[in-house]
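Worked problem 6 (solution included).
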Amino acid sequence: MSSEFYSRIHSNPIIAAVTDLSKLKEVLESPCEIVFLLTGNIFNVKAAVDELKDGGKLVFIHLDLLEGLSKDHIALEYIHKSINPDGIITTKSNLVRIAKEIGMFAIQRFFLIDSISVESGVKTVQSSRPDAVEIMPGIMHRITSRICKEIKIPVIAGGFINDKEDVIACLNAGAMGISTSKEEIWCM
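Solution. The predicted structure is:
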């Protein structure tokens, strides 16, 4: 999975971050090859994942935002075997480790609010060893550059990405890709 993820993100670094399942048609019509599913519950997530994957998209479920399942080993195994996304996103390092143990692609998301959160995030990532990291907000280009140099794991910048200039600045700072819920950027 990791080689397909890296190939696709190199091909198109814009990741569609879906916060409303009514936007699946727009995502499917977009050139985005990777989708972060930031919404859903145990009743609708499988259908959303299947529809996106049938449309040729790589789909990553944000576990912390998925409703109706606990956030533990059994839930991850169920998601892996029954829902079958291409991977997961989470802020929780213990879930990253479990996901990696069962063969899932794991993206660790963390929020940068001050220098302590940057240091803590770097240590957490070095310990949990996710396949990629999403840092938020993504518009902090100097911090993005620093993190890219320190952790040596692919970085995705997300949050407050509002226009082409933000996308270019994130990529120039070293991010491998950007995630955004702004539909107008999906088709850039």
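Discussion: The longest helix spans residues 115-128.
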